[in-house]
Amino acid sequence: MPELRARRRRPSFRLVAVSATVALLLGLSLAGVAYAQDYRGRDGDSGRSTHRHPTGFVPIGGDQIGRGSAGRGWGDRGHPGRDQVRRDQTDRDQTDRDRADPGQPDPGQPDPDPTDSQQIEPLDPNVKLQPPDPPDSLVPGTPCTKTTHACVSLGQKRSWLFKKDPDSGETVIDHGPVPVNIGGPGKETPLGDFKVEWKDKNHKSSEYFVPHGCVEGSPGCEGAPMNWAVFFAEGGIAFHEGTLAIRSSGCVRLSAKDAEFYYTALQIGDKVEIRN
Predict the structure, then answer these.
(1) What is the pLDDT of residue 227?
(2) Taking Cα atoms as reference points, which of 195, 259, 196 lies closest to residue 227?
(3) Residue 243 sits in a domain of what CATH number?
(4) 161 plus 258 within the same structural domain
(5) How much is the pTM?
(6) Are 222 and 127 in contact (CB under 8 A)?
(7) In what order do the strands lie in the sheet with 171-179?
(8) DSSP E strands, 191-261
């Protein structure tokens, strides 16, 4: 009898082990089904779901609407919803287009300053903007530039004085043309640009004396007069009063009236241009 009882107990242990195994497998299967239903409810694959996510989001038609935030997918959990996925794909497409066409401006950058590459148009279409004259442009009717004060043409034996017009600011002729006489062969009046160095109203020459041919220091012999002298070049070259009938020794001779005008108008440092 004891042997029979022992044999009957052995199948019961096996049955318990098998039952436990089956129960475990069944539990795992049910858990997997529940997880799958929960996942489909989150992703919207199963249509509407009333499953409540632990964060407080309720899936509605596949898109997640969070408390206090609209259209944010899975809210702050870092799982993008469909709208976010579409926005990400749109950004990637735009980046690809920008790389394919690098010449397109960045929409996030401000428009370039139009003054960097083009001239600003006047507001009034009837107004024509004129560029300023270059500083080396000539005064009309003369061989000299607008930056000078006194002009001499050796070829024409003419001279002019210039000034700035107070209204327009343009350089205009203030006096002239007036006749002049200049240096002869071997004692030519120098060409070039000069500046007024000094002036002497009643200057006497230290090189030439009158009467002509007299000896310096002899009674009645004195330096040749150079009234209204305006010196502008080395060697004693100046504008001054003198006869226009004969050549000078390099100076620019003027009539008495014109010489006085030049003496009054020209100041120390004023520019003088001598041209052919």
Answers:
(1) 98
(2) 259
(3) 2.40.440.10
(4) yes
(5) 0.52
(6) no
(7) 171-179, 158-164, 150-153, 271-275, 192-195
(8) 192-195, 198-210, 222-233, 237-241, 252-254
